[in-house]
TrEMBL record:
The keyword Signal applies. The keyword Signal applies. This is UrcA family protein. Keywords: Signal. The lineage of its organism: Bacteria, Pseudomonadati, Pseudomonadota, Betaproteobacteria, Burkholderiales. Residues 1-22 form the signal peptide.
Length: 112
């Protein structure tokens, strides 16, 4: 799982790039509150546990791809109205491409 995080972060950054003038806040408010509560407790132990099976790794990757889409959509909505449709189309296209290639991405990031 630790190998996937840089990839997902990179994908999210690419999606957010299309909304360059958006504000820094791209996390939905309800998620931000949950994140703050977790941060106060320290890193959850699950962050340091690799998924044991290929199916679990793929499930985690799909969740992260979905989270990247949600953040990109929020960034697009906060960006200039004239660029919003193009930005959201690019975010959806990236999501679809990543989901279609999820098994390959998982395999590349879990080579031993």
């Amino acid at each position: 799982m630790a190998h996937i995080r840089p990839l997902i972060i990179g994908m999210a950054m690419a999606c957010v790039a299309c909304a360059a003038q958006a504000t820094d806040q791209t996390t939905p408010p309800q998620n931000a509150q949950l994140q703050q509560a977790e941060i106060a407790k320290g890193d959850p132990a699950r962050w340091y546990q690799d998924d044991a099976t290929a199916a679990a790794q793929l499930r985690t990757l799909r969740k992260e791809i979905g989270a990247a889409l949600a953040e990109a959509n929020l960034a697009c909505k906060q960006g200039p109205a004239a660029e919003r449709n193009r930005c959201m189309q690019e975010a959806r296209a990236t999501y679809k491409q990543d989901m279609a290639n999820a098994a390959q991405i998982r395999a590349e990031n879990h080579q031993h």
